[in-house]
# Entry
Amino acid sequence: DAKTTQPTSMDCAEGRAANLPCNHSTISGNEYVYWYRQIHSQGPQYIIHGLKNNETNEMASLIITEDRKSSTLILPHATLRDTAVYYCIVRIPGELTFGQGTILTVHP
Amino acid sequence: EADIYQTPRYLVIGTGKKITLECSQTMGHDKMYWYQQDPGMELHLIHYSYGVNSTEKGDLSSESTVSRIRTEHFPLTLESARPSHTSQYLCASSVVAYSSYNEQFFGPGTRLTVL
# Structure
């Protein structure tokens, strides 16, 4: 599996964009980038995934660099309910391996 | 809204007891998973199943066992609970094993405490 590196924690003001980086310099050509988040005491929730192209859905945008060695998850207008642990996972489709993730705290 | 259920939500039990954690999903998903997560720590995959009569061990060694007799049901059993089994257990399911989409739907979890 490609190892991912994420900051331990980040802060964001409510209403502003939250940009969560992820480094995956050893990613293989057939590995996808997945993002999940886990709100305290709940099960993880799928956010978005991508292979090469940037992706957008109702929750977030995923920007993948051209060399695919890093990516950024963007929450365009963070709310207090977006406070959670965000996991960047790089895998071929199949089982997921959750790392430490980034603790995002959205404050008023 | 994901339709995956876990019971009980909380369980406090004494050492040596046999326990079964229930997980059911009504989405018709073939693949199901069990994860273990200590407070503030990473999720670790302990068991998964591709479908009926399929069970596989995950990345983290576990003394628990699982069964998959019906598509919708994936119970986890501990024959003799110990304090080291105290943790949160999360069940998940997904539509297709090797689709790039790979979205896993998680249940609310069972928080187990063994005294």
